[in-house]
Amino acid sequence: TSMAMYVPDRPDDEADLRLKIFRREESLSLSKILPHLSLLGVDVIDERPYELAIGNGERGFIYDFGVQVPGGSAAVQGRWTFEARQRFMAAFSASYAGDSEPDRFNALIMGADLDWREVSLLRSIGRYLRQVGITYSQSYFAQALSSNVDIARHLVQLFRTRFDPKSGLDPKARGAAATELVDKIKRALNDVASLDHDRIVRSFLAVIQAVVRTNFYVAGCQAIALKLLPRQIAELPEPRPAFEIFVYSPRMEGVHLRYGPVARGGIRWSDRAEDFRTEVLGLVKAQMVKNTVIVPVGAKGGFYCKRLPESREREAWLAEGLACYQLFVTSLLDVTDNIVGGVVVPPADVVRYD
Predict the structure, then answer these.
(1) How far, CA to CA in Å, does 337 sit from each of 12, 223, 304, 352?
(2) pTM
(3) pLDDT, averaged across the chain
(4) Active-site residue flag, 227
(5) Position 138 pLDDT exceeds 80
(6) Which one of the listed residues 166, 186, 300, 306 is annotated catalytic?
């Protein structure tokens, strides 16, 4: 599949931009395409599908969409640059393919000039906040950030400053730049009229400041792992573990809670989409009581599969559960030190604050 997005050359074309999708062999479902485009903030006003007979029994398809963008032709001349259109097409492709989730967070791609992975990072923080008991919906999280795009951009910039191993900053310069960004975000909060939006932004900021490791910049990672110090986040329910790793992907989500450097516990395949962390928290408390004579403290992990087939398809159901378990554990290991020959070997491309 390939794409092109361009300004139409016909003066009578009512579209601000045209998006063409080129595909061989398999056709696309138009009804499935439209929601992905709408969530990216554009309105599709016409669609022209074409089927081509290539020869040798092969087929090709061209899907030609006319779209209108917020701000109209003036916006096309301004912010919809070549780079911005490339970012839009990459985001649409990731959303349609299932590499990112189609939801209102995607409005930040054009609204805050973020790429789809950076939006996935903000989405993962929103998912974590829901698991720790913040009652706002994901749509409301997205609305709060979309209403304050400069702050959303600064939150991503803060994360990048703290954790991008290729930033070229030494630890002292990294810390100074992060402090400056935190101050900038807090000053910007003075202009946020909504108390809800203020609380949401502060929650996102608190999570980013509590993260001590991430695999976000590890090449080829298929899920986002955020290792946090939960005791630094004021809104978390008690008891707060010493260490926590939250794992997010469109396919699964999971959490691992640990109450000390040496801890013992297991991992559960949870069926509680909205509060699997609460389930794991209860399990780890029981684990600590049972194992206190073996090791001082407990640990427990849990993951939830988001794309399970019907349970009557037993083999496929189990295969997806196993794949999600492997993705969960692999993501935990992405941010975990190893010991080789008695020497601690840190994971590649992971900036460590612990």
Answers:
(1) 61, 18, 25, 10
(2) 0.94
(3) 93
(4) no
(5) yes
(6) 300
